[in-house]
Please model this.
Amino acid sequence: MKLIEAYQSRSEALTALDNGGRFFSWFSKANDGQISKAELGKVGGVFNDKQQMILFLEMALSKLGAEDQETILNQLEPKMQDSYLEHRPERYLPSEALELGTLSSNAIVKGIPRHVDSKEEFTGFIMFPISTGSTTTMVMVPLIEQYEVYHLYDESSESDFLIAHLKGKESLPAELLEVGGVLKELKADKKNSEQAAKFLEVLYYQRA
Model:
């Protein structure tokens, strides 16, 4: 999970994004007028996950006007433009995310997080990969064992939506935020797999 400081101008964004990538490449040079996958991955802190790169880009450009955003998006290499159309996140209020959000897609939700402090406050299970030697299996585990869990509240209502990030990361501040991540399925319990809800696995956040 990473705090994003959104770009304040088109020139700032282009300088950061058109950066040449992590390693020398004949196909990706700094300030060449085209933003490659490697360059976007470098600034977003991602190696090979296009969906996460697009989420970062959308949040990093969020303070720019529509014309500046369009100029920058037009400089994405063609394959990344296709990825942008595929993975561009939808924006929701907490009251909208459960009903309108699509599983496995990017989403940005705006609200104020309240941390869930104990296992007694929360029940819910997810499919989580467990590796033993060279074998990885998916097992159902309590969400709160693997993640820090929060209720994200609307500014002006009692509505909330569940969000979470992997343990070991810095806690989210209890203030108005935009949190970006991937919508995932949450099972009510191990026995009744049909009773399912959604939560947002948070990858990035920024102050609203």
The chain has seven helices and nine strands. The chain has a mean pLDDT of 89. The chain has two domains: 2-88, 91-207. The radius of gyration is 18 Å.
